[in-house]
Amino acid sequence: MTTQVPTSTISYASLAELAHREYQTGDYDNAERHCMQLWRQDPANTAVLLLLSSIHFQCRKLDKSAHFSMLAIKQNPLLAEAYSNLGNVYKERGQLQEALENYRHAVRLKPDFIDGYINLAAALVAANDMEQAVQAYVSALQYNPDLYCVRSDLGNLLKALGRLDEAKACYLKAIETRPDFAVAWSNLGCVFNAQGEIWLAIHHFEKAVALDPNFLDAYINLGNVLKEARIFDRAVAAYLRALNLSPNHAVVHGNLACVYYEQGLIDLAIDTYRRAIELQPNFPDAYCNLANALKEKGQVSDAEECYNTALQLCPTHADSLNNLA
Q1: Any idea what DSSP says for residue 10?
Q2: In CATH, which of 3.30.565.10, 1.25.40.10, 3.60.110.10, 2.40.110.10 is domain 26-144?
Q3: What confidence score (pLDDT) does residue 235 get?
């Protein structure tokens, strides 16, 4: 049985520390209750106002979050964190321009405000302004080069922009900072795969899953690259491991079925394609591939039906058009 601390008997500073601890552990109800006690004692305390703003944001009470951010700004118009919190509310509401204005104002007020740059970068990505997002991440890293998660996020952005060598440098730096950071190993594998370096890609995906045995995306990436390299037995093992983690992942079932088909295990391929379709009925590739497998078994009318379903789902589905022709 847990006993609550009688908050009437503890000091203001201790109560503030308790509220912060509750916020950090996700106990938002008690954090809010204790913050409200603090606020009633000292309505001008901007640290308490900021914490209330953050608590309400985590609880998706956006109006209340904005309200406490505005109260903090009223007390201190130069408080960068309050503008950043306000930016979070606008971003959550989809008001990207207002979010960007607040984030930019925050980093102007406090040029070494790392969280402000990270929030700004995320909003710029949402607004599809990738080049400015790159600059925001670079600014954050100038103030703290050891932020390996931010370095990896920058790598993802550069990868999406096709700047693969720069992305690779980011992932390598993230791994240098944190050698057991599985996400960076997997992302680096994606870059090597895109550059046609299949064996390096395989090595990096295998390293990622060795570091994090529950890393679903890395198993899928590993399976995909092994499938492309026609190393079918290892591809099957990777996909089965992925399905162990996520049994209802339709795309993995579809990819696994493709490998079974390539191995000549037609009945197993058919069953696995059917499972993929059962999980995701709007899956034209699976219908087309199932049709190919059915045709292989001489089940021509069933195959035609599957090709037609693929075309209904995607009228320009080239493989289905070719097979029906």
Answers
A1: S
A2: 1.25.40.10
A3: 98
